[in-house]
Amino acid sequence: MSKLKEKLYKKIEEWRPRTTKLLKEYGDVKISDVTISQAIGGARSIKCLVTDISYLDPLEGIRFRGYTIPEVLEKLPKVPGCEMPYVEGHVYLLLTGDIPTKKEVEEVAEEFNKRQHVPQYVFDILRAMPRDTHPMTMFSTAILAMQRESLFVQQYNAGISKMDYWDSTYEDALNLLAKLPEIAAYIFRMKYRSDTIIPPDNKLDMGGNFAHMMGIDKPYDDVSRLYFILHSDHESGNVSAHTGHLIASALSDMYYSISGMINGLAGPLHGLANQEVLRWIQGVMDKMGGKIPTEEEMQKFVWDTLDSGQVVPGFGHAVLRKTDPRYMAQREFCLKHLPEDLIFKYVDILFKVVPPILEKQGKAKNPWPNVDAQSGVIQWYYGVKEYDFYTVLFGVGRAFGVAANIIWDRALGYPIERPKSVTTAMLEQMAVAKK
Ligand code: NMX
Ligand code: MLT
């Protein structure tokens, strides 16, 4: 058994009695009420999911296993000569809750290296798809195609105990996660770089190897590490994490679950917003003939978007009520590495003009920018100008958090998810009865 798996096993054994005790002794304690507007309005703020991988405070933003983003970036072991930590170390943190030592990170990197080989049939399937297929469709399909590899399915069919489900789920997770950077880079090079594929270099860490396979020089390795870490998890109610959890709750395996969560991430109100931000900014740039707009000119573009009934991409959030710390982490990177970049300057003006406009319009509950407002700028600067690829990068990162959640769901024996629905007539009756 690998050191990581051994540690995880110990943590699971320690954790199980906590969940059992809560269920047995306090199962009827009420933690949320549900109103009609929540039932119709996307279950907003209803507390009915449990995860210990990350927690999202509306004013503070995300904490991964209790650590804020600056703490994660500071405490996790760094790749020698680089600014950013190993993605492998972040995976260790998400899974176990502990900050790993350098040696523990190297062991995880070794684990991933051993599992990295992508079966040829995955590439064959990608190549058989029309080249103009959206990269998220390709990414999801490639993951789904590997479902035949699932060890969980084999072991389930062999009749293993429920207590052991997590073990083969963990194996599936590591096998799949190890392959995602290569699949993503393959899609990119096949679609956008005249089909010139760059094979992996097993001597590199995950972020370094991804930059190498993308064919982009330093500091794109650090950009990749930062991206994968920042996008990894956002507690469990967001569309992608919730979709992954929901699918897995039917005991569908990791491949089905991660492919499904990628499909949820591909929506413009969720992960696809990062491509929408760049598309929207490009539209503004075209109108401005490439020059930097004044604040007044930018205000007009924002109002035009709102007046035409569209949302301003990259702003607003279902939970956050302040600027997303993931936005701030990327903004700091931009201020250090690309302060004079034209698109960064556009984003900077948007940071100033959009929140007061959304406040004035009075609809959005959160007028501040989210992670997607800033992420495309960095990609564009380092040469990834094909913005429909951006959500794939989000997806690689998100897979680490969703997979960690699913392993723990299985370890703690969470049941199939099945909320109850009511009819409109029932709501009307309940409403009248309350008057
Ligand atoms: N621009 C214009 N209108 C907005 C925006 C925005 N950025 N954000 C919210 N609103 C509107 C929203 O459409 C709704 O309008 P209506 O009453 O006509 O249906 C109203 O404000 C209230 O919405 P909220 O309760 O503030 O937001 P909700 O929780 O429903 O949705 C988002 C959250 C993130 C879907 C929403 O803010 C949005 O559409 N933002 C733009 C797209 C985006 O950036 N998505 C990425 C989110 C992060 N991620 O990576 O997933
Ligand atoms: C996410 O990272 O999943 C988004 O910010 C959306 C969310 O948390 O609802």
Report on this model:
With 435 residues, the chain is mainly alpha-helical. The chain contains 20 helices and three strands. Strand 2 (61-64) and strand 3 form a beta hairpin. The structure holds nitromethyldethia coenzyme A and D-malate (MLT). D-malate is lined by residues 234, 238, 240, 270, 317-319, 370-371.
Gist of the model:
By secondary structure, the protein is an all-alpha fold. It has helices at 3-26, 36-40, 69-75, 87-96, 102-114, 120-128, 135-145, 151-157, 165-192, 206-214, 220-230, 239-249, 254-265, 273-287, 295-307, 325-337, 342-361, 372-381, 390-411, 424-434; strands at residues 54-57, 61-64, 67-68.
Distance between the termini: 62 Å
The number of helical segments is 20
Our Rg estimate from Cα atoms comes to 22 Å
Ligands present:
nitromethyldethia coenzyme A, D-malate
Estimated share of beta-strand residues: under 5%
* DSSP, total strands: 3
| Unreliable stretches covering 5 or more consecutive residues | none
Mean pLDDT score? 97
Biggest sheet statistics:
3 strands, antiparallel
Element order, helices and strands?
HHEEEHHHHHHHHHHHHHHHHHH
Task: Give the topology, please.
Elements: H1 3-26, H2 36-40, E1 54-57, E2 61-64, E3 67-68, H3 69-75, H4 87-96, H5 102-114, H6 120-128, H7 135-145, H8 151-157, H9 165-192, H10 206-214, H11 220-230, H12 239-249, H13 254-265, H14 273-287, H15 295-307, H16 325-337, H17 342-361, H18 372-381, H19 390-411, H20 424-434
Antiparallel strand pairs: 1-2, 2-3
Bound molecules: nitromethyldethia coenzyme A (NMX) and D-malate.
